[in-house]
Amino acid sequence: LIRESIAQELKSSVMEVTESFSITEHLETVFAQAFAIAFPEYGNVPVIIAPVNSASAKYGDYQCNNAMGLAKKMKEMGVNKTPREIANELLKACPASPIINKLEVGGAGFVNVFLSKDYAAKALQNILRSGIKPPRVPKQRVLVDFSSPNIAKQMHVGHLRSTIIGESISRLLEFLQHDVIRINHIGDWGTQFGMLIAHLEDRFPDFLNVSPPIGDLQSFYKESKKRFDTDEEFKKRAYNRVVSLQNGEANSRKAWTLICDVSRKEFQTIYDRLDITVKERGESFYQSHMLSVVDFLRKKNMLEEDEGRQIMWSDEGKSGVPLTIVKSDGGFTYDTSDMAAIRHRIDEEQCTWIIYVVDSGQSTHFNTIFKAAERCGILNPTIHRVNHVQFGVVLGEDGKKFKTRSGDTVKLSDLLNEGMKRSLEQLSSRGRDKILTPDELIEAQEAVAYGCIKYSDLSHNRISDYVFSFDKMLDDRGNTAVYLLYTYTRICSISRKLSEDVSNLKTILDTVEIVLDHEKEWKLAKTLLKIHDILLKCSKDLFLHFLCEFCFEVCAVFTEFYDSCYCIKKNKDGEIVEVNYSRILMCEATAAVLRQCFYILGLKPVSKL
Ligand code: ARG
After folding, report:
1. If you take atom 3 of ligand 1, which residue's CA is the nearest one?
2. How far apart are CA 496 and CA 565, in angstroms?
3. How far is residue 237 from each of residues 7, 127, 244, measured CA to CA in Å?
4. Cα(145) to centroid of ligand 1, in Å?
5. 3-state secondary structure of 569
6. Fewer CB atoms near the end CB (10 Å): N or C, the chain?
7. What pLDDT, on a 0 to 100 scale, did the predictor assign at position 572?
8. Residue 505 banded pLDDT, cuts 50, 70, 90
9. Ligand 1 cavity residues, CB under 6 Å
């Protein structure tokens, strides 16, 4: 009786979420119920569900792998049962689920799950009717700190990685219905502004009335640094300017704004080209918060004097490196601004999840900040989640740090221009410049250029260093944006061949049901329905290469399907003699799944390429 009611409950919960649930999570619930019924005394064992490699489809689509471990555990408790016996008991205790067609015990004691084609067809039809619905997760207020270049310095490839990864993480979490705040924590504060302002006063005394023509802010920075290091009088004045800037003195403030504007414009052109949305809230924003966090830490007895500095240890045992909260000259540091920022994000922004997309070189810094924030009571790990989403360095094709031939840091705008040039060459080599209209060509060129730069970054495990190579990213055979974009346009072109307009799928959906009889149709359906699992997997540890691998798999499986299943049959004269509308629907569902993934990865799908 209990089993029946559980089965009923499950059934209704499945019906309700058919449009948007993770198959793995659903099977975990099914097997957790089975555990509770068959082995109540081992009820809290975590259920292990794994998808079965499609090459072994005869063993099912997913399997529950718990029996082997459980047999061992039972043996320790003096109960002798073989894994196969256990698997059989689990199987019998499984409540009915509309997504399961049959269960079988196989091998050493796996419970093999065969998915229901009925359910799969319905789920795909749902996708076509109402789009891909996000899997349900508890909603959080998340702040993503990404991009974060520094004023007057070059925005380099490290910032490019942060920008690309941060944008995609934001898109992913937004799709999962989180409340996402995207923050650009620009380095716009600190002692270097003293020398920049002092130098500006000397070079452009008229700066209050006439906007100074500082196109090349980096050389301006270098000049001022040189004077700062060699000229004592200048150095003194620079220190003065820092103080007046922090006190809000009008002229220094104006000079600072002018300098920041130059960088800001440069950053914005990069963001516009790459379709990046991020709100600027630089270090300067936290000036008053730094004053109050210092106060807060002092009251909590967290600060310790060290050769004139005020430092804070992140743990009482004083291990690791302490944070420098106040310098001996009274100034604040990168540490101070991050302590102020985390406090603001938790207390005022009410975030329960904060994500820092910053290179691996800063992992000690962030670990110390997180521990210190916990120690002084800003962060409560049972409520707040913090992640340093770290990434490796970008290497050139020679395996060394990415540099120009002359050894300088690569300017991002030059890099994007080079991408545009190479992308046009790629398209021309396929004769696309002759087929596409000028507008279509530009659209394609941008989609390929920016898409390949983003995708080659996202498709590698972000923790490792990665080699930046236009040749590799523009290869149309590997796991590249070019390959995905071409496959997508190929799918779009299929329904374009039909004489009728299928852009309104509703009419077809009302009269045609998806049929999954052919082995390749079934394989494609099962692949597409993994999307919810994959999105959850990506959000768990914030790794986007899983989504890239999934796109690659979808394209490969689609190609297998298209090679062996006709969608449109033509006669010798090229006239359409038969259309398989179920398969047309499969093509459209594939396109819908890819579009959703492309959006998260920042790829622009073009219908002609
Ligand atoms: N501006 C810093 C840099 O270029 C990155 C800032 C990252 N965010 C933060 N909250 N510390 O290295």
Report:
1. 149
2. 18
3. 77, 65, 10
4. 8
5. strand
6. N
7. 94
8. confident
9. 145, 148-150, 185, 187, 338, 341, 356, 358
Could you tell me which residues come within 8 angstroms of residue 45 by beta carbon, excluding any fewer than 6 positions away?
A: 35, 39, 66, 69, 70, 73
Per-residue pLDDT reduced to its tens digit, 229-262? 999 999 999 999 999 998 899 999 999 999 999 9
- Interface predicted TM-score of the whole assembly (ipTM), two decimals: 0.99
Q: Would you say residue 43 has pLDDT above 70?
A: no
How many angstroms does the Cα of residue 356 sit away from the middle of ligand 1? 9
Crossing angle of helices 581-601 and 438-458, in 10° steps, is: 70
Structure tokens at 88: 């059989």
CB atoms within 10 A of CB 14: 19
- Sequence-separated (6 or more) residues with CB below 8 Å from residue 400: none
Pocket test for ligand 1, best of 151, 358, 359, 366 (most atoms within 8 A of CB): 358
Estimate the share of the chain in helix, then strand, then coil, as percent rounded to the nearest 5.
55, 10, 35
Distance 274 CA to ligand 1 centre (A): 20
Give the predicted TM-score (pTM) of the model. Answer: 0.94
- Given the CA of residue 365, which atom of ligand 1 is nearest to it? 11
Q: Which atom of ligand 1 is nearest to the CA of 186?
A: 1
pLDDT above 90 coverage of the chain, percent:
81
